[in-house]
Structure formats: C-alpha cells, structure tokens
Amino acid sequence: MTTTTTAHTNIALIKYWGKKDPQLHLPYTDSLSLTLDGYSTTTTTQFLPGRQDQVQVNGHPASPAFFQRVVNFLDLVRQVNHSQKGILVQTTNQVPTAAGLASSASGFAALAGSLNRLFQMNLTPTQLSCLARRGSGSASRSIFGGFVRWQHGTGDFDSYALPIDEHPQLPLTLLSVVFNGQAKKVSSTQGMEQAVQTSPFYPQWPQIVERDLDEMLLAIQKQDIAEIGQLAESNCLAMHALNWTARPFFTYFTAETWQLINLLPIWRQRGVLVYATVDAGPNVKLITNQETLPVVRKLVQSKFPQAQLTTLYPGPGLT
C-alpha cells in the first residue's frame, strides 16, 4: 500500500518564537499564519519488508540529521499503532530546506497526512494538527488552508491549529524574495532557545503577540490588506529584536535583508502598498495586493537583480 499527501508552507503573520516544551513543541504563545499556494511538499509512504526505514528527499537519501528527525517521527506513529514495520518515505520538496521558508512546516504536515492514510488512523483535522506539531511546530498550521491560528495550549492534546478563513477572498498577494536558499547557520530551535534564555525583553513577547493577534483578527475581518501588512511587519521586527538582544546576539538577516526592509518605508511614501515579514532566515516575503504586485516586483528586480522572485497567493490545506 502506498499513500501520497501534499501540504503547503505557511508564513506566520503573527509569529511564535520560543517553546515551553521542546519535546512536544509547545509554544509560549499563539500564532497566526497564512498558508501559501506556491511552496509545497509531496510525501509518499509505504511499508517495507523489514524493520529498516528509508528516507529520500528529491530522489536522494536524506542527510543523517534529517533522516533521524524523520525516524523519530515514524517511531512516534509506530508506537501509537503498535507497529514495528519499516517505512519508505519519499519526499518531493518545492521549498529550499532550512532557509527560513517553512520547509519543515509543509514537510511534516505532508508526512503526518501520508502516515495517517498508511496506518488508516482516520484522524480528524485537529488530531492531524497535533500529530504534525510533533514533527515541527509550524507544521500544525499547514494542515489547513488560508488564515490559520495555532493555539499554544497546555499539553499534547490542546496545542493545535484552527482555521480562521480557509478560502479568503481578499486580493492579498505575497512576493517571495529569496536571496539565499542555503541552510541557515542557526537553527530555529537553537535560536528560540537562545532568545528565551538570554534576551531581557523576552518577558514582554507574549504580551506583544496577544495584542498583535487581536488586532490581526480584526484586520482580517475587515479585509484590510494595509493593516494586515503593517501588523505583520511590526510583529516580525519585534520577533527578530529578541535575537538582536540575546546574549550573545545573533541575526538571520543579511545585508540584502536589511537593504530591502529599509527601502519599504521609502516605497510606501510613494504610495506603494508593500510590507515585509521574515521568518528565521534571510529571505523576505513582501505583502501587497494583486493590483500593486507588478510595481513591487519591478522595484525589487531593479534593486536586487540576483534575487529569486516567486508570487504566492493564499493556498489550500492538506490534500
């Protein structure tokens, strides 16, 4: 029996940064994301005759670190199903891995969905969200399409994502600007831990998220793209400020990241609707609308001719 599932990445508009339980991937705060149509992971799983697992990514054997991460997830599912069977995992990834483009979100959401079918677990979307979270926290959100809220919860069974609007009708458009598709030097897990433990401003972070999330829900309800963009940009910079104030400080931003972000207020003064959000990596997602997208794309191309640009729209949940 072979099962195949596709999941899409998501971009956190209101971010989580910090885990109160690293093993269960329980965050300190809620978060709110938008699932995107352009970046996806398709995963096929099947049982093997023996007990040895095989993991392939884009047709090649997985790196030792990623192989172990996947096997740990397979062990979790096997334990639940009282199984010792080996599993072949074949993943086709349309996202640069570990570059701050949410490859783990789509990857573990797709893996959870495929294993759900392989083991005939018949999990509900909420249960699938909990399972995907055990592989990667942000994967809990990629079970659903459109705008999604991940509630931080108190344990393994109440920390899951819920859809806010799976089929948003507003003309929200993102332009992904990839400066560097290489794996980042500081992993998200390592960066979170360092910020939580050493930034003197971390105690204020949950309050910032709570306020921004309430305001973002209103902006989505009003379909106000400018307000959505402004809140997302502000929340993003507040998150990265935790890294700059960690001891020792670190940053995911490169010179190009800074240059683009500093150009945005200038472009907005000219009447261009454009805001930025950046996950744990150097690459930027610009928030705009369909009408303004050609202007934004032309501006970015003129300043960063080497950057890889991808247009993204609100995307679907697990398929």
UniProtKB/TrEMBL annotation:
Which GO biological process categories is it annotated with?
A: isopentenyl diphosphate biosynthetic process, mevalonate pathway
What keywords are annotated for this sequence in UniProt?
ATP-binding, Lipid biosynthesis, Lipid metabolism, Lyase, Nucleotide-binding
Q: Which residues form the Diphosphomevalonate decarboxylase-like N-terminal domain?
A: 7-161
Signal peptide position in this chain? none
- Which InterPro entries has this protein been placed in? GHMP_kinase_C_sf (IPR036554), Mev_decarb (IPR005935), Mev_diP_decarb (IPR029765), MVD-like_N (IPR053859), Mvd1_C (IPR041431), Ribosomal_Su5_D2-typ_SF (IPR020568), Ribsml_uS5_D2-typ_fold_subgr (IPR014721)
Asked if the keyword Lyase belongs to this entry, the reply reads yes
A Pfam family the protein falls into: MDD_C
GO CC, sorted alphabetically, is: cytosol
Q: What is its EC number?
A: 4.1.1.33
Q: Where is the Mvd1 C-terminal domain?
A: 177-308
Q: Which SUPFAM superfamilies match?
A: GHMP Kinase, C-terminal domain, Ribosomal protein S5 domain 2-like
Q: Which GO terms describe its molecular function?
A: ATP binding; diphosphomevalonate decarboxylase activity
Please state which protein family the record places this protein in.
Belongs to the diphosphomevalonate decarboxylase family.
**NCBIfam families registered for this protein in UniProt:** mevDPdecarb
Give the protein's recorded name: diphosphomevalonate decarboxylase
Organism encoding this protein = Bombilactobacillus apium
